[in-house]
Amino acid sequence: MSTAFSCTQCGQCCHNLHIPLTINEAKDWLKKGNKLKILIEAVPWVNEVETTNSVLLRKSSMTFEGTSGALSIRVLVTLVGFFTGGCPNLDINQNCSIYESRPLTCRIYPFEMNPKITLNPANKLCPPEAWIHSKSEVENKDVESVYMIDSVTKSNIERIYTTSVLEVRNKERICNALDLQTCALSNDGYLFHLVDQFKVLNVINEITQSADNVAVENKKFTDWHIYTKNPRALNDISSIGGRGSFPALSKTGEEEFISL
């Protein structure tokens, strides 16, 4: 027997969160009057080198190509619903009022969106009693085999990945339409763009109403500027021709940088 997860309905996972959303989920989220941020990361990339590495192939499929000065990068865009306190979709009894149509991220919690990341209960909001332990767990050194995951959750994790791949070009269109040009260095920090909620909803509406798989209209060249608080990383970016700096304090409150 392995360790399993059994939800206690404590509601801790429905408070003070940032929730990755698909484009259609983001549209529904905004229509309800909820708040959205856009997270943008830069992954330095060597275009000429082909790889069979599964991690790099996964990153490539979920990102679009870009440049920062002379540096080739891949750009990862995530639409993020956020709130302080309880989720706006909780009812007066603290139950989810949109349970049957809740975002995919909510459906898979506490499991990870990336199957390469090992589940660690210590990093989750769930109470200890949510984890059903086996007697052999302490002796089991193969951590990945300790935690069971049901087939529905596995399917939803795959749906998240598949949708992310299909949405790459439309996310590029969103960045173009909103004139977003700054990003964080991947695995170094998070850069959230605090966008105009009505404008981003209009952009998403326009994109989702257009034909599937259309090319990026009026695609413009974006010379991405990379933020990092790491002096060594900044020196590395500059030494290979990239455009980077320490994150500036936004006077307009349009950007939020969080270091890792």
Question: What descriptive keywords fit this protein?
Answer:
single chain; 260 residues; alpha/beta; nine-stranded mixed sheet; two-stranded antiparallel sheet; 27% helix
Count of helix runs: 7
Distance between the termini: 36 Å
Order of helices and strands: EEHEHEEHEHHEEHEHEE
What structural class results from the helix and strand content? alpha/beta
Q: Tell me, what's the shape?
A: globular
Radius of gyration: 20 Å
Mean pLDDT: 87
Strand tally is 11
Oligomer status: single chain
Kindly state the percentage of residues in helix. Answer: 25-40%
Biggest sheet overview: 9 strands, mixed
Low-confidence regions = 134-145
The portion of residues forming beta strands comes to 15-25%
Task: Write a structural description.
- The chain has one domain.
- It has 260 residues and is α/β, with parallel strands linked by helices.
- The protein is 27% helix and 21% strand.
- About 5% of the residues have low confidence.
- The strands form 2 sheets. Strands 2, 3, 4, 5, 7, 8, 9, 10 and 11 form a 9-stranded mixed β-sheet that branches.
- Strand 9, helix 7 and strand 10 form a beta-alpha-beta unit.
- The protein contains 7 helices and 11 strands.
- The radius of gyration is 20 Å and the shape is globular.
What is the fold's blueprint, element by element?
Elements lengths: L3 E2 L12 E4 L1 H9 L3 E10 L9 H8 L2 E5 L2 E12 L21 H5 L22 E2 L18 H16 L1 H11 L3 E4 L3 E5 L3 H13 L15 E3 L3 H9 L4 E2 L9 E5 L1
Parallel strand pairs: 3-7, 7-9, 9-10
Antiparallel strand pairs: 1-6, 2-5, 3-5, 3-8, 4-5, 8-11
Helix pairs in contact: 1-6, 5-6
